[in-house]
Amino acid sequence: MSLAQWSITVLWIGLTLYVLLAGADFGGGFWDLFAGGTHRGRPQRDLIEHSIGPVWEANHVWLIFVIVLLWTAFPTVFAAVMSTLYIPLTLAALGIIARGAAFAFRKASDQLGQQRLFGAAFALSSVLTPFFLGTVAGGIASGRVPLGLAAGNLLTSWWNPTSVLAGTLAVGAAAYLAATYLCADARREVEHQLAEAFRRRALVTGLVLGAVALGGIAVLHADAPQLFDGLTHRALPLVISSGIAGVASLLLVLRRRYLLVRITAALAVTAVVWGWALAQYPYLLPPPARANITIAAGAANPDVLWATLIALAAGAALLIPSLLWLFMLFQRSQHGVKTP
Amino acid sequence: MIAAAASPIDLFAARQQMGISLGWHIILACLGVGMPALTLFVEWRGWRTGEPAYQLLARRWAKAMGVLFAVGAVSGTILSFEMGLLWPAMMSRYGQVIGLPFAMEGIAFFIEAIFLGIYLYAWDRLPPRQHLLSGIPIVLAGVASAFFVVTANAWMNQPRGFDLTNGTVTAVDPWAAMFNPATPPQTIHMLLAAFMVSGFVIASVYAVALLRGRRDRYHRLGFLVSFTAAAVITPVQIAVGDYAARFLASYQTTKLAAIEGVYHTGSHIPLTVAGVPIGEQLRYGLEIPNGLSLLVGYSPNTLIIGLDRVPVADRPPVGIVHLSFDVMVGLGFGLLVLGLWLGVSWWRRRELPRSPWFLRTASLSGIAACCALEAGWVTTEVGRQPWIVWGQMRTADAVNPAPGLLTGLVAVLVVYLVMTIGTVYVLRRMARYHQLAAPQEVDAELGGAW
Ligand code: HDD
Ligand code: HEM
Ligand code: HEM
After folding, report:
1. How far does the CA of residue A10 sit from the closest CA of chain B (Å)?
2. SS3 B54
3. Using the beta-carbon criterion (under 8 Å), do A181 and B450 form an inter-chain contact?
4. A–B: how many Cβ contacts below 8 A?
5. Fewer C-beta neighbours within 10 Å, C or N terminus of chain A?
6. Which of A281-290, B82-91, B338-347 has the lowest mean pLDDT?
7. What is the ipTM of this complex?
8. Pick from A94, A100, A110: CB nearest B73
9. CA distance to B55, B127, B131, per residue, from B40 (Å)
10. Do A91 and A316 meet the contact criterion of CB atoms below 8 Å apart?
């Protein structure tokens, strides 16, 4: 592989981790929004808060990682994406602020009124942010973002059938991931009623998500023929794997195999993220955008790519043991029985 | 809707938005750098002496840190978006040159987030010694991230490490870009500022409590530890500030000329305190004859390069830069005097000064330190104008040509206003009702992670 290909691979791994980890955190907010009235929804909200609390900041760093790596390794592409998709990205950025701050504030406040206010801000922004990030992905994938500064259409680049589809899928995938993860968390806390509630939700969202994805095929066929072509040819194995993993997850949820379903659900989503990459390979900004650009052409100077990849490898050597320690601490505590 | 060129209004909006979000983030970032060290110090004292007051201080500061870190993290994320949303032309050309420090900063954030999670979450699960050790990476990562990001800013002042051919960057040496001549003065000055801000901000909280008559050991220690730390750093910071100014005298003469309002190159240049620029001269200020020449070269004959060496279009606005510099220096010396006051009183009778004016002033020291910090950044950033990358790219050429940046500014203003109110409100409640939990904390019986 060339240096540019290594760089985009590392970037895509970061993106996948962001989608899987932070996606689930966003999904937690989605279920918070639909948890019902203040009293009825309380146990669910508590469970969501406990699951997200210690990890969301670390999960969130993946987004920063992706952004910084994009501007370092593919600077012209970064500039094109940020300037043309200015509107959804600003909205996503504001959503990220509102969500993080509101979550922290809700946890640290004790009055019902405030908790409701912060909670509503948290939940609403948890739904809007993935939607806007999804529209960005749709705009890029359907070839609506040309190279250059704000060279694309500032509205239709993200408000178009493919973008809306991608935004909806992003929200759906987040909700689905969260529901499956929460099943296991609820069971571990011996909250069987909650586990059942999230099981129902996982089933419903899984079915809806599958239906949207199937319907999406028609949308892509009409709106983004080149992406459709890529997905049905080069990326077809991944698309099929995603489908299989999705169906397997549903069956596993039905049989209450919550730990296994974490893996299959994550696989289903991962396959879509990598399917997208494969479908538009070797382009970073694919046609029909007039000024399209490939991975090789968009890459930064090789010296920069080297230095960055080495720095990241050194960083990983520090990070992996730290992360392991973090998770070990959590696992250890989880075996403890619940004190009254 | 297709973009044309950026209108002056949009350029103005983009600059305001960048300045406001950076100005907001930097306060949180300073607390993120300085507070972990202070917290670890009191935790260590508590462990060694077994004194409950220290242990309580450690717990409470750690909780506040949890909230501040969460808000600091999101406000920083916005900044990385804004680099591209507002200044795509700069990032398109130079993103790769300054990418390396930001990539390393990302690693530092990760470490910070992971260990903060451990530190707050596992307080009662780890033996005291291990818990203390788990806090050290937070301190190191905070210092490292501040260092990395300021090297990027230093590069904007002293762009190095790349070749430009027909407007595209060819050869890049990311290490030379990172360790440019502005890096030592700026990073040292910034890190010291972070510790000053943290110390004085915490000290003012306890000064208010002491003024209200809560003179128990807990409040006294809280005040003394944080205030002393900051007061000891202040003289060092002033010396480093002098170094930063000398650096400008040799490397960024135009900025120094704007700072001091020197319009005409020459020797025997006076130092003007305060004053307003009217027609190529600072009026109504206090003039110290030969002052600037003496400060820069220890001799009245030292030549000072004035603004007349560059075309009018390349000059930064003198009024703001000069005023904010004076504010920074004035506050720096004010804080120095305040620290000396405590020092003298402690030396004489091992006690806080008797005059209520000491605590009254000390309760403002946090705000003063923050103002000095902001004023310093305004000096640096506005003093670099009209360049975004000094001598290479103008701010007006870097901005996003998409219309509607003004709308973005308004939205950002509203969100930041709400976030400010929320942060202050929540921190005040935490100070009053101590059972409230930090966002990373989980009740002991409910462990959980995805
Ligand atoms: C607590 C905050 C604080 C205090 C008390 C001071 N400064 Fe400062 N100063 C900053 C906080 C700061 C800063 C962190 O805001 C800046 C902005 C950029 C930087 O590197 O540090 C800065 C910039 C800055 C610059 C511009 C550097 C550049 O653009 O490259 C100069 C010349 C000084 N300072 C000089 C001083 C002097 C002579 C001080 C003596 C009292 C002083 N500072 C006190
Ligand atoms: C955190 C402390 C900082 C503060 C308070 C601050 C403040 C400001 C202000 C007030 C402006 C507007 C200047 C004007 O338009 O006249 C500005 C512009 C800018 N700053 Fe900073 N700055 C800080 C640090 C940084 C750092 C570390 C970087 C980059 C690595 C940076 C990058 C920029 C950019 C790209 C602009 C816009 C272009 C320009 O106006 O020159 N700043 N900043
Ligand atoms: C253009 C300028 C800047 C950018 C793009 C930026 C970016 C960021 C980002 C993305 C985060 C979130 C990290 C997380 O999730 O943990 C963050 C947090 C942080 N930033 Fe900045 N930053 C800038 C300026 C600064 C400056 C000037 C400092 C210097 C002191 C600084 C120090 C920090 C620290 C210490 C944190 C950790 C959060 C905390 O402890 O509260 N940043 N920054």
Report:
1. 12
2. helix
3. yes
4. 302
5. C
6. A281-290
7. 0.87
8. A100
9. 10, 15, 10
10. no
Q: Distance from the CA of B257 to the center of ligand 1, in angstroms?
A: 16
- Listed by number, the residues of chain B in 240-299 with a beta carbon closer than 8 Å to a beta carbon of chain A are none
A35/A247 Cα distance (integer angstroms): 26
Which residue's CA is the closest to the ligand 2 atom numbered 28? B153
Q: Give the span between the Cα atoms of B306 and A276, in whole angstroms.
A: 57
Give the burial string for B212-240 (b: 16+ CB within 10 Å, else e).
eeeeeebbbbbbebbbbbbbebbeebbeb
Ramachandran angles phi, psi of A294, nearest 5°: -95, 170
Ligand 1 pocket, residue B17 CB under 6 Å: no
pLDDT surpasses 60 at A340: no
Which one of B21, B90, B178, B381 would you pick to mutate in the ligand 2 pocket, going by the greatest count of ligand atoms within 8 A of its CB? B381
Question: Helix count (H) and strand count (E) of chain A?
Answer: 14, 2
> Which position has the token pair 């075309």?
B311
Token pair 């603004």: residue: B307
- The CB of B238 under 6 Å from ligand 1? The reply is yes
C-alpha to C-alpha distance for A56 and B436, rounded to whole angstroms: 19
Q: Which residues contact A178 (CB under 8 A, 6 or more apart)?
A: A23, A24, A25, A26, A27, A28, A30, A31, A48
B428 to chain A nearest CA, in Å? 10
Question: Would you state the pLDDT for residue B446?
Answer: 35
In angstroms, what is the span from residue A63 Cα to ligand 3's centroid?
14
Please give the Cα distance from B426 to B67 (Å, whole number). Answer: 9
Helix-strand-coil split of chain A, %, nearest 5: 80, 0, 20
Helix (H) or strand (E) holding B170: strand B168-172
Average pLDDT for A35-55:
71
3-class SS at B444? coil
Q: Is B96 buried (19+), middle (13-18) or exposed (0-12) by CB count in 10 A? A: buried
Q: Give residue ranges with CB within 6 A of ligand 3.
A: A 57, 60-61, 64; B 22, 25-26, 28-30, 32-33, 68-69, 72-73, 76-77, 79-80, 83, 109, 112-113, 142, 145-146, 149-150, 190, 194
In whole angstroms, what is the distance from residue B413 CA to residue B21 CA? Answer: 9
User: Closest by alpha carbon to A158, among A133, A135, A141?
Assistant: A135
Gap between the Cα atoms of B384 and A230, Å rounded: 48
Q: Between A153, A322, A330, which is nearest B111 by CB?
A: A322
pLDDT of res. B440: 57
Q: How far apart are CA B248 and CA B259, in angstroms?
A: 10
Residue in A67, A102, A149 closest to B400 by CB? A149
Specify burial of residue A325 (Cβ count, 10 A radius: 0-12, 13-18, 19+). Answer: middle
DSSP 8-state code for residue A21: I
C-alpha–C-alpha distance, residues B281 and A250, integer Å: 77
Name every residue whose Cβ is closer than 8 Å to that of residue B35 and which is 6 or more positions away in sequence: B61, B64, B65, B68, B198, B202
For residue A203, pLDDT over 80 is answered with yes
Mean pLDDT on A251-270: 86
**With the CA atoms of A279, A285, A290 and A296 taken in that order, what torsion angle do they form, in degrees rounded to the nearest 10?**
-100
Q: Which residue of B has its CA nearest to A259?
A: B450
Two structure tokens written together for B178: 């990172």
CB-nearest partner of A51 from B80, B85, B449: B449
pLDDT exceeds 80 at position B99: yes
Average pLDDT, chain A: 84
- Tell me the CA–centroid distance for residue B400 and ligand 1, in Å: 30
With beta carbons less than 8 A apart as the criterion, state whether B136 and B40 touch: yes
Alpha-carbon gap, residue B67 to A173, rounded angstroms: 29
- Predicted pLDDT of residue B444: 35
The B residues from 158 to 197 touching A (CB cutoff 8 Å) are 169-175
